Target: Phosphate transport system permease protein PstA
Amino acid sequence: MTVTTAPPAPPRVPEIPSPPLRLTNGHLPRWAPWAILVGTLALSLLAFTVIAMAGQTDVNVAGAAVVAALAYLVFILVISSLVEGRRKGVDRLVTGVVAAAFLLAMVPLVSVAWTVVTNGVAGISAEFLSHSMRNVVGEGGGALHAIVGTLLITLAAAIISIPIGLFTAIYLVEYGQDRKLARGITFLVDVMTGIPSIVAGLFAYAVFAIFFGPGIRLGIMGSVALAVLMIPVVVRSSEEMLRLVPNELREAAFALGVPKWLTIVKVVLPTSIAGITTGIMLSISRVIGETAPLLITAGVTASMNYDLFSGRMMTLPVFAYSQYMNQGIPAQAYIDRAWAAAFVLIVIVMVLNLVARLVAKVFAPKTGR
Model:
């Protein structure tokens, strides 16, 4: 009888514990990009400071910021690629480029706003907001006549252009699909978008000069000139907003037997009212600061005028231009009035945009149940 024995068991090899897996492995901490940015900015400022001290000049802060931004993009790409992989490194690089482009675009806006506010606040006073320049030479006076003229002329331009632009957009979207007339209107609107403002002023002047003779200056002429500039902006912005309305909403209304015009009034327009209001405000902001067409059409005056159909009418852009170009004694008073007029114009545009947002919020369709 043969007895078999089992082979001896192999010796057990001790297991080496593996490090625990974490979700943060291969990822830079949140503070790393900010630390790299601060470090590159500090090194760049230090280098430019040393160069300025050697040349006995002022530190070039803008140059230091540009060099720091470029260095940050290089460092974040290299470090992120080594730690997180090339894909994440490229993603962080593109994010940095987009952020740098945004900051670069904000520089002129912030610079202009800061310059106007700092220089314009010095000229703002109760007298400036409550008096005109009638019989004022030198110091004193105000821009009340220009404020009133700006509001009246812009309001009349809006009354003229908004219905025309809105009805044109409705025709192009709701009635003019694939029609030659709609294509012709679209082409003409695109051409009008690029019209120089001085051409709109000359057009309004020529039209009124035919009926009233050369040399005529009226506030309504300025409104017509501004309306010519506003109409293409209103048409294009309203057209795009109307196209965003889902066709399902129109079809649901048609299925219930609602006529097309009522569908447009009750469904399409309320759905797109927020975007349409924004486009209208963009058109108003586009024309409220125009100077050249108003110089030709509305003219220059130092007195109050509440009648758009009688006599010259001053506006804030023309007031700022005339004060700065026709400086008297003391010159600083004229410069202060010009900056103050620019500041008041910016405030008016800001208030109009806030009102437009409020209107869009109130009349927008309710989405809650």
